[in-house]
Structures are given as structure tokens and as C-alpha cells.
């Protein structure tokens, strides 16, 4: 009987092979969620965390704001440990944290439920941006706070994303203002138009900000058809950031 020889499993593929696979993926008509899952899975086996040096930039002022905000939250020690560990898993040029709860819990020597709590607190601060992908949640670092990759992609990702700021009493929070009234057509129409016409990445970030301000969270928030449901929560922020068009007439 022939002897079976087990070949070693490859833990990494070449960048050229990864690019070739991506080209084939792009040929298929699939949802954004499915495409993101495939893309992330491919990234994990192309660039294995822990097997390479990771260069991450931080904005000193914004990073200090995050540290001060964490210090005022419950379980600050656990949160800062999880925050520091999360920064070592940044995906190049997207800012996505490429580690699940279990991995972050292991690295921070805590429990997965504490990771969930910490990420919720960090999203309230504005340091972390949450994105729903079906039943799963993806986390991104605020591109004003930190980034791994080129400055050009960071600027694109940061377009329309609020910076953190100090408010009276020493509290740190995202640079938000109150939601627009539902009947305030002067802001809502151009806000909806901007959100529908902008790129998907920017729309996802603004959807996450709307959730942080009280908008109901749904899996399809980043889609154009869902924009009118949550646009009132960020319309005034868009206006304050100078992102709304000068012409505010017409239907979105």
C-alpha cells in the first residue's frame, strides 16, 4: 500500500497571486458584504499579522485626545490595552482592524466580552468606526487618529469624518452637532444628495457617525437607498464641514 505523505500547508501566498485572485473576484456580481469578506480573507493569507513589521502613523494631538477620553471611561485599563492591541492589526490603506474579538482578548489578556465593551466605548469616543456586515461587525480606526499606508488614501478615507475635540469640562468627543430636524429641507435635501453621490467608503463612515448620534443601526445603512433614513442625524455636521453643495434646490 502506498504511503501517504502530507504536504505542509502554505500560510501565505504571493502578492502577484493575490492580485490575480482579486481580478477574478471583480468579475463576479456579488454584494458589498460578500466582496469584503473575500477581500479580507485574501488579505489575511497574503499579509499575515505578526510575520511582518507594521508601520502605523498617528496624529499626536488626536491620539492624546483618545487617551484622555479612555481615562474617563469605565475599565480604562482594559480599554487602553485593547486599543493598543487593535492598532497592531491595521489593514493597509483601509484602516480596518484585522483581528476578531478572540484574538484581541488573547493579546490584551482579557475576555472577548470585554473587547466588545471596549470597542463600543471607543466608537462612542469617535476613535473607532463600526460597520455592520450582515451579522458581523467590522471596525476601522478613525483616519484622523491613526493610519497604516499612504497619505493619499488616508486623506480620502478622512473626507467628511469628524476629528476629535476637547469640549468644556475636559471631555473628548467627535466634532458633532445636533441632528437636523426631519422637516429641515434646506439641509436634508443636499445632505441626502451628497451622501448618495459620494463614494461608498465615505458613506459607510457617515452612517457609523449617524449611529453614534442615535440613528437606528441596520445592515444596509451604507447603501444609497437607505440614506434618507439616517441623513437627518448628520446633515448639520455635513453643512458645518462645508461638504454640502451651494445649490440647495431640487430633489435629492
List the helices and strands and how they pair.
Elements: H1 15-26, H2 32-46, E1 57-58, H3 60-71, H4 76-86, H5 101-108, H6 112-125, E2 128-133, E3 136-141, E4 146-147, H7 151-158, E5 164-167, E6 171-174, H8 185-197, H9 200-212, H10 227-230, H11 235-240
Antiparallel strand pairs: 1-4, 2-3, 5-6
Helix pairs in contact: 1-2, 4-5, 4-6, 5-6
Rg (C-alpha, Å): 20 Å
Classified in CATH, the superfamily of the largest domain is: Winged helix-like DNA-binding domain superfamily/Winged helix DNA-binding domain
Looking at the overall shape, the CATH architecture of the largest domain is: Orthogonal Bundle
Number of domains: 3
Biggest sheet architecture: 2 strands, antiparallel
Runs in which pLDDT lies below 50 for 5 or more consecutive residues are: 176-184, 248-252
Strand content: 5-15%
**Class from secondary-structure proportions:** mainly alpha
Name the CATH class of the largest domain. Mainly Alpha
Reading the helices and strands in chain order gives: HHEHHHHEEEHEEHHHH
Question: Counting H and I runs of at least 4 residues, what is the number of helices?
Answer: 11
Amino acid at each position: 500500500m502506498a504511503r501517504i505523505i502530507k504536504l505542509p500547508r502554505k500560510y501565505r501566498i504571493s502578492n502577484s497571486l493575490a492580485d490575480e485572485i482579486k481580478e477574478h473576484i471583480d468579475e463576479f456580481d456579488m454584494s458589498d458584504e460578500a466582496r469584503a469578506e473575500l477581500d479580507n480573507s485574501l488579505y489575511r493569507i497574503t499579509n499575515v499579522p505578526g510575520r511582518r513589521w507594521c508601520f502605523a502613523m498617528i496624529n499626536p494631538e488626536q491620539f492624546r485626545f483618545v487617551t484622555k477620553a479612555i481615562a474617563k471611561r469605565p475599565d480604562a485599563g482594559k480599554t487602553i490595552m485593547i486599543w493598543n492591541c487593535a492598532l497592531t492589526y491595521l489593514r493597509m490603506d483601509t484602516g480596518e482592524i484585522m483581528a476578531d474579538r478572540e484574538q484581541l482578548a488573547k493579546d490584551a489578556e482579557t475576555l472577548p466580552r470585554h473587547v466588545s465593551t471596549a470597542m463600543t466605548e471607543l466608537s462612542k469616543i469617535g476613535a473607532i468606526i463600526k460597520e455592520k456586515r450582515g451579522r458581523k461587525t467590522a471596525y476601522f480606526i478613525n483616519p484622523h487618529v491613526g493610519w497604516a499606508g499612504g497619505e493619499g488614501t488616508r486623506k480620502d478615507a478622512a473626507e467628511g469624518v469628524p476629528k476629535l475635540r476637547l469640549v468644556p469640562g475636559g471631555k473628548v468627543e467627535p466634532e458633532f452637532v445636533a441632528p437636523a430636524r426631519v422637516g429641515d429641507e434646506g439641509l436634508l435635501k443636499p445632505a441626502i444628495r451628497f451622501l448618495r453621490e459620494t463614494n461608498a467608503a465615505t458613506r459607510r463612515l457617515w452612517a457609523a457617525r449617524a449611529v453614534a448620534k442615535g440613528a437606528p443601526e441596520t445592515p444596509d445603512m451604507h447603501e444609497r437607498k437607505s440614506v434618507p433614513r439616517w441623513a437627518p442625524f448628520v446633515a448639520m455636521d455635513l453643512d458645518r464641514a462645508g461638504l454640502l453643495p451651494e445649490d440647495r434646490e431640487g430633489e435629492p
